[in-house]
Design goal:
Strand content: under 5%
CATH superfamily: Amino acid/polyamine transporter I
Number of strands: 0
Helix content: over 70%
Structural class: mainly alpha
CATH topology: Amino acid/polyamine transporter I
Distance between the termini: 18 Å
Oligomer: single chain
CATH architecture: Up-down Bundle
């Protein structure tokens, strides 16, 4: 199957359709800022290091900026919607690249489908208050249908929708932030959350892992490199802007959340709640009023929708590239004649989402405690594994192509440091996976092993491709598109 665009180019994504702002909003929406602030931050405070979370966000932001240096340096030389897969391939070889491709597909599927669980539960709870009573899975199916339409059509349409939603998310949280500042918090604004004493209390390792999860999606800037205007400028700018925008926002808001409750009272107040994820709404009621809390409840649902839409776009592009380059069936690696979107890959991802949601619904699993918690933690682990592989791939790539990057900080030193740091984070996720996800016993070990299984499958697919076509194998991850 070959799809030819109006300009005669076969199987290509829509060129020059995304600027810096569009790519940034696609990426920031995947990070789902309101979802992270309402859901992830209170849990990180309760289970992690309490009021030390603002300092933890500074640490994680700094580490991701270190990673971004080598990441964007390589983006100038490898323009491929496969992003992590392409970088790993060009740096570490085709077999490692095949492993990275399937890890990426599995991880982003896990993130998207897991977030759909929370979307279904949140939408069901919100609309039940309005007299509309439908089970969580019904709202999941409706959300999947809407995302499928956006994913099938042009990506710039998705970007426009997500821009509006993300701006509204930031606005409502900033209203609360400045209300806390205006009223001086619980007992005056304190910089104590940034002290070593607060950072090292409780379980800093779990706090770091939650903070990493809040950033997942920022790395997707390179996924849109084939569709970006001036990709050598758009991708680096969007990457740095995304990390700084997300990191500063999380740090600032979590600091004010700690001050809003009182630094010494914070963990006790969150722990006393029946649902820790209602903490942001209790602060909203206290400092602004119920009208903002009600608006936040609506935007919480749209935040989740923005996240699943962005993850869908990412999954579809990874599948498209894997099909285009021979790792998956070639029929997946084509684009729509009119929209130049990876429409077949989008449809495949939609079918997978429907199947997994149906499985969890039929077996009576909880959409939040099981579907959301299990899958998003698997996805987070997989994406950090890809970040580690990419860090070392950057070093290998520039070692073989020394003339492309003369700065050793970009080509070697910072990528090595970030890669080693990611290995430490990976080990902590595996060790603490049961506590993070709520999965116990055999399940607590099986779920993280899904990433390893994906790597083995991907490596096997790459080896199979090499036996069928040495030329196709050598071209994996190239920037020829």
């Amino acid at each position: 199957m070959t799809t030819t665009t109006s300009d005669g180019q076969a199987n290509q994504l829509r060129k020059n359709s995304l600027g810096v702002a569009a790519v940034t909003f696609l990426v920031v929406s995947a990070a789902a800022p309101l979802t992270a602030v309402a859901g992830g931050v209170p849990l990180s405070m309760l289970l992690g290091n309490g009021a030390g979370i603002p300092a933890t966000f500074i640490l994680v932001t700094a580490l991701l900026l270190l990673f971004a240096v080598g990441y964007v340096a390589m983006s100038r030389h490898v323009r491929n919607a496969g992003a992590f897969y392409a970088y790993t391939t060009r740096g570490l070889g085709g077999v490692a690249g095949g492993a990275a491709a399937i890890i990426a597909i599995v991880s982003y599927n896990c993130m998207q489908i897991g977030v759909f669980g929370l979307f279904g539960a949140a939408t069901s709870g919100l609309l039940a208050g309005w007299g509309i009573n439908l089970p969580w899975w019904a709202w999941c199916y409706l959300g999947i249908a809407l995302v499928a339409v956006l994913g099938y059509r042009r990506v710039d349409i998705s970007a426009k929708v997500l821009t509006v939603l993300v701006v509204l998310e930031y606005l409502v949280v900033l209203i609360l932030d400045f209300a806390i500042i205006g009223q001086g918090g619980d007992s005056g604004l304190s910089l104590a959350p940034f002290t070593p004493a607060q950072f090292f209390q409780g379980s800093p390792a779990i706090g770091i892992l939650f903070c990493f999860a809040a950033f997942i999606g920022f790395e997707a800037t390179t996924i849109y490199s084939e569709e970006a205007r001036e990709p050598t400028r758009t991708v680096p700018r969007a990457t740095y802007i995304s990390v700084l925008l997300i990191g500063i926002f999380y740090m600032f808001t979590s600091w004010l959340m700690a001050n809003g409750a009182g630094v010494d009272k914070l963990v006790g107040e969150i722990g006393a709640l029946e649902d820790p994820t209602t903490f942001l709404f209790t602060l909203s009621d206290r400092y602004v009023g119920t009208w903002l809390s009600q608006l936040m409840s609506i935007l919480f649902v749209t935040s989740l929708f923005a996240g699943v839409t962005a993850f869908h776009n990412g999954v579809a592009r990874y599948m498209y590239v894997a099909g285009r380059e021979g790792l998956l069936p070639s029929g997946i690696g084509v684009t729509h004649r009119q929209f130049q979107s990876p429409h077949v890959a989008s449809i495949v991802q939609t079918v997978i989402a429907v199947a997994v949601i149906t499985l969890f619904a039929v077996t009576g699993q909880d959409p939040v405690l099981n579907l959301f918690s299990w899958l998003t933690n698997v996805g987070t682990l997989g994406i950090i594994v890809l970040m580690a592989a990419t860090s070392f791939a950057v070093v290998a790539f520039f070692s073989r192509n020394a003339g492309l990057e003369a700065n050793p900080l970009k080509a070697w030193i910072l990528p090595v440091l970030s890669g080693l740091a990611f290995l430490v984070v990976i080990s902590q996720i595996v060790i603490n996976f049961g506590n993070l996800s709520g999965a116990s016993g055999t399940l607590g070990w099986f779920l993280p092993s899904i990433v390893l299984i994906a790597a083995v499958v991907g490596a096997a697919l790459a080896i199979g491709l090499r036996s069928r076509s040495a030329a196709a194998f050598e071209a994996l991850g190239s920037a020829r598109y």
